[in-house]
Specification:
By secondary structure, this protein is an alpha/beta fold. It has twelve helices and six strands. Helix 5 packs parallel to helix 12 and helix 10 runs parallel beside helix 11.
Length: 233
């Protein structure tokens, strides 16, 4: 699990910016979804192409959040990064400049729908009531990246709890773009993971200072259990 020392030391800056430490005091289950980003074998399983070892450590927290959200009647969305013809046509700059020609076929194979790499990590508890969304950019909420905005709006959802991997790439990108679409953002400090503590903490600080609230799993669970759905003081 990532150390959060740097984030905890500097998170108070948010109060200087907006006048209080947290933007949101309560959570409305009827208008909130849990969004789990890219917890697929290609990122989570040992020895995979883009392995993020810390991502395995957050699996219990994501499972706990998913169970609590379902119990509260909330939508759980599993987002899977997908490489296909639509991705290549819609985001050619990534294919041209983000990897070597030798790496490209490896990425295509590992992140193609139906491949082992593309599948959700087996230790995650996916329920038949959950929703699955394929995305073709780092951000699930980027224009043309996925159907997630439509899926959530149809359910009357305007708030999301962001979890998954990588903290500083697909999770942060999705949270930023969702914020620009007027979603309230709760970002899981110990339910997101990336490659280093430094990157993780820097991303948490950026989100907390400018795009939403960063909360740990226990705080979110307490809010869901509370009769008024209020976060602990």
């Amino acid at each position: 699990m990532h150390s959060l020392d740097m984030f905890k030391e500097k998170m108070g800056r948010a109060a200087d910016i907006r006048g209080r430490l947290y933007a949101y005091e309560t959570i409305d289950p009827s208008r909130t979804a849990l969004v789990v980003v890219d917890m697929q074998n290609v990122f989570v399983a040992r020895g995979q192409l883009v392995e993020v070892p810390e991502a395995r450590d957050i699996v219990p927290n994501i499972n706990a959040l998913a169970a609590a959200c379902r119990a509260a009647g909330m939508t759980v969305v599993w987002v899977q990064h997908t490489v296909d013809k639509d991705a290549e046509q819609g985001w050619p700059i990534w294919f041209e400049f983000a990897m070597t020609p030798e790496q490209k076929p490896k990425y295509v194979e590992a992140m193609s729908a139906g491949s082992d790499g593309h599948a959700i990590y087996s230790e995650l508890d996916v329920d038949e009531r959950d929703v699955t969304v394929y995305k073709r950019r780092y951000s699930a909420f980027a224009e043309g990246a996925s159907a997630i905005d439509t899926v959530l709006r149809e359910r009357g959802i305007d708030s999301i709890i962001t979890t998954g991997t990588l903290t500083n790439v697909c999770c942060e990108s999705s949270a930023r773009d969702a914020y620009f679409k007027n979603y309230r953002i709760i970002f899981g400090s110990d339910a997101t993971a990336c490659l280093t503590d430094e990157e993780h903490n820097a991303s948490l600080l950026a989100v907390h200072n400018f795009f939403g609230d960063v909360r740990d799993t226990d705080e979110i669970l307490q809010a869901l259990r509370d009769n008024e759905h209020r976060f602990p003081a």
